[in-house]
Amino acid sequence: MDLLEYQGKSLFARIGVPVPDGRVATSPTEAQRAAEEIGGRVVVKAQVQVGGRGKAGGIKLAENPHEAHDHALAILGMDIKGHTVHKVWVESASNIKAEYYASFTLDRSAKRHLGMISAKGGVDIEEVAATEPEAVVKVHIDPVMGLTNWQATEMVYRAKLDPEAARGAIALLKKLYQAFVEFDCDLVEVNPLILTAEGNVVALDAKVALDENGFFRHPDFPALADDHFIPPVEKMAKERDLNFIKLDGDIGIIGNGAGLVMSTLDVVSLVGGEASNFLDVGGGAGADTIIAALEILMQDPSVKSVLINIFGGITRGDLVAQGIVAAFERLDLPWPVVVRLDGTNAAEGREILAGVKSAQLIPSSTMREAAERAVALAKAVV
Amino acid sequence: MAILIDTSTRVVVQGLTGKEGQFHALRNRAYGTHVVAGTRPGKGGEEVAGIPIFDTVAQAVEGTGANTSLIFVPPAFASDAIMEAAAAGCAVIVCITEGIPAQDEARVFNYVKQTVPDTVLIGPNCPGLISPGKSNVGIMPDEITLPGNVGVVSRSGTLTYQAVHELTTLGIGQTTCIGIGGDPVPGTNFIDVLSLFQADPETEGIVMIGEIGGDAEEQAAAYIEEYVDKPVVAYVAGVTAPAGKKMGHAGAIISGSKGTAGAKMDALRAAGAVVLDDPTQIGRAMAEALG
Question: Do A211 and B101 touch (CB under 8 A)?
Answer without folding.
Answer: yes
